[in-house]
Automatic annotation (TrEMBL):
Its EC number is 3.1.3.-. PANTHER family: HALOACID DEHALOGENASE-LIKE HYDROLASE DOMAIN-CONTAINING PROTEIN 3, PTHR46191. It holds the Pfam family Hydrolase. This is HAD family hydrolase.
């Protein structure tokens, strides 16, 4: 195995995947609490999907970040036929309840190979690592707890989330922040060719990395898995 000096990882659908129960229970929560127009739970699931796709496309295009609270208000408005009366909504309580829902229905490791590959990279003593992730309905502060619970964080040097820095992949600013955060005392004279970003999204991950001049690897959405990193060479 030939090692890069620094490995940057996407999170969703690269290292972890959603628990199917989470999205179902999230829809039930909004069905019970914000459903004055008596939408069905299935209709609410569809609304969540529409907002998720729309906001993801906006974030990728603008390079910025629409926050979770804003996304939840969009959901509530759409459930209620675009009613904009948000006065009675307690956003702090909503944030708390949504985080608890994540912990009740925890995301899972994307594959059994994830921790083994991360461990081999770190055990080499030659490489550092990070997570570089766009966020949506689940905030970075919650994802850090998930990463800890799943045992990923012991192999990761730092984590960057779009909602915390107001930038989203594929923006060069987000990738530049990642490069600027790498510990240069461990990697004096680090070159762009020494860095690789791994993710599942051909646009946000691969094109974003290539625009920055660093290496990239697309996994999981094609015929490659994270284990292919063990056979990749600089």
């Amino acid at each position: 195995m030939a090692f890069y000096k620094h490995y940057s990882f996407d999170l969703w659908l690269t290292l972890i995947k959603s628990n199917p129960r989470y999205k179902q229970e999230r829809a039930q929560y909004f069905y019970r609490n914000f459903n004055r127009k008596n939408k069905t739970a299935e209709e609410i699931v569809i609304i969540f999907r529409q907002v998720d796709l729309m906001v993801n496309a906006i974030n990728e295009k603008a390079g910025k970040n629409v926050d979770a609270e804003e996304m939840y208000l969009m959901i509530i408005s759409m459930i209620n036929d675009y009613d904009f009366n948000f006065h009675d909504i307690d956003l702090q309580q909503l944030d708390h309840d949504m985080e608890q829902l994540v912990f009740m229905h925890m995301p899972k490791l994307y594959s059994d190979d994830c921790l083994d590959v991360l461990a081999k990279i770190k055990e080499s003593g030659k490489s550092t690592t990070n997570i570089l992730s766009n966020t949506g309905f689940i905030k970075g502060k919650t994802l850090k707890k998930v990463v800890y619970q799943l045992g990923i964080d012991q192999y990761i040097d730092f984590q960057l989330y779009s909602d915390e820095v107001r930038m989203s992949k594929p923006s060069t600013g987000f990738f530049q922040l990642m490069l600027d955060t790498i510990d240069r005392t461990k990697h004096p004279g680090l070159l762009l060719s020494d860095v690789i970003h791994i993710g599942d999204n051909p646009y946000a991950d691969v094109r974003g990395a290539e625009a920055m001049g660093i290496n990239s690897m697309l996994i999981n959405s094609n015929n490659l898995s994270i284990s292919n990193l063990l056979y990749d060479t600089v």
